[in-house]
Amino acid sequence: MLQTTVRYLDRDDLYRVEKPYSADFAVDEQNGAKKSNIITTDRHVEVAPVASRGEFNININGFCILKENTTLTLEDALERPEEAELKYQAELEKILHKNFPEYTRFEGLDFVVRRRHPNYPSEKEETVKYEQPATVAHSDYTPEGAIQQLKGSFPGQEAYFLDKEYDMINVWKPLVGPNNDWPLALCDYSSIQPTDITRADVLHADRITENQLLYPSQQHRWYYVESQQPNDLIVFRNTDNTGKRAGLQPNSFGSATVMLTKLIQWGSMPPSQTRPQQGHYARVLK
After folding, report:
1. How high is the pLDDT of residue 124?
2. What confidence category does residue 1 fall into, taking pLDDT thresholds of 50, 70 and 90?
3. Which domains does the chain have, with CATH numbers?
4. Average pLDDT for 197-214
5. Contacts of residue 93, Cβ cutoff 8 Å, sequence gap at least 6
6. Environment class of 119 (CB within 10 Å of its CB; exposed 0-12, middle 13-18, buried 19+)
7. At 85, is the secondary structure helix, strand, or coil?
8. Could you please report the per-residue DSSP string of 35-78?
9. Does the pLDDT of residue 20 top 90, yes or no?
C-alpha cells in the first residue's frame, strides 16, 4: 500500500457563488480578472496496487485493466506521430471491440504523449514540448462537455451523435516499462458520492468546455498499476451522455484520475524514457 497525497478541489465557500474554472491561455489579471479560481487541498491517502488485472469492471468501478499488445513504439510515437496514431487507433479499435462487444463503434478523438519535464513540478513556468502530469483529481468531461468536444472533433456531424448513446473513455499505457514514475491513479467510482463531484469550466481561446473535479472524502478508494508495462492498458470512463450506465449516477461521472508524484521511484526509468500515451475515444452503444 502506497502512502501519498492526492490534490482535490477544496470545499471552499467560494463555490457556493462561483463555478470553478481555469483558462489554458494567458490572462491579464487586472480589474479582478483571474486565470483560474481553482482552490486545491492536498490530502494524505493510501493508494493500493492493482492485485489482479481482472478485478475491476468499467461498469462498476469506472475503469478496468486490459492485457493487450500493440505495435506502438516510443520511436514511432515521437518521430512519426501521425502515422503512429493511425496505426495505433486501428489496433485499439480491434482491442476495444473484442473486450466491449456491446458497443457498435469507436471513434478516436486524440493521441497524446506525456513526458514529465525533469523540473516538474516547479513554481516557475516553463515552455515544455510534452503535456505534463495532471495533479488534480478530475474527470475530463461532463455530458455537456462531451458534446462540445464531439462538435469540435466532428464538425457538421451533430445529427449523427446527438441521438445516440455514447461514452467518453480513455485508453492509457506507458510507451516504456516498467513505469513507476508519476503513474496514473484511479478512484474507484463505487466509492464516490454525487456530493463529491462538481463541474468546472475549462476556458480555451476559441471555446468553453466542461470537466468534473473531485472534492475530498475519506471513503474514496484509490488504485494504481505498479510497474505498468506497455501491454497494461488502463481503460476508464470519463462520462456518458445518458447517466444510465451501470455504476454511474445522474452526474454521469466515471472514474476520477490523477497522476501520483515521483515519490514512487523504486527502480523506475529516468523521466526522459517514461512517456505514457493516452487517447480519448467516443464509443457508441447503439
Report:
1. 66
2. confident
3. 2-284 (2.60.120)
4. 91
5. 106, 108
6. exposed
7. helix
8. SB---EEEEEEEEEEPS-TTS--TTTTSEEEEE------HHHHH
9. yes
Phi, psi of 23 (to 5 degrees): -110, 145
pLDDT given for residue 122 in this prediction: 57
Question: What is the distance between the alpha carbons of residues 79 and 194, in angstroms, rounded to a whole number?
Answer: 43
Phi, psi of 87 (to 5 degrees): -70, -40
Beta bridge partners of residue 236, listed in sequence order: 63, 170
Cell numbers of 186, please? 484511479
The set of cell numbers assigned to 168 is 467518453
Contact in structure between 109 and 278 (CB atoms under 8 Å): no
Q: How far apart are CA 88 and CA 81, in angstroms?
A: 10
| Whole-number Å distance between alpha carbons of 244 and 108 | 23
Cα-Cα-Cα-Cα dihedral sign, residues 203, 22, 170, 139: negative
> pTM (2 decimals)?
0.84
pLDDT at 275 over 70: no
Residue 96 belongs to what H/E stretch? helix 81-99
Distance CA 7, CA 133 (A): 12
pLDDT digits (tens, 9 = 90+) for 148-199: 888 888 888 888 787 888 888 999 999 988 988 888 999 999 999 989 999 9
Phi and psi (nearest 5°) for 40? -110, 165
DSSP letters spanning 225-284:
-TTB-TTEEEEEEEEESSS-STT--TT----EEEEPPTT--TTPPPTTT--EEEEEEEEE
Is the distance from CB of 8 to CB of 43 less than 8 angstroms? yes
Q: Give tens-digit pLDDT for 77-107.
A: 888 989 999 999 999 999 999 999 989 889 8
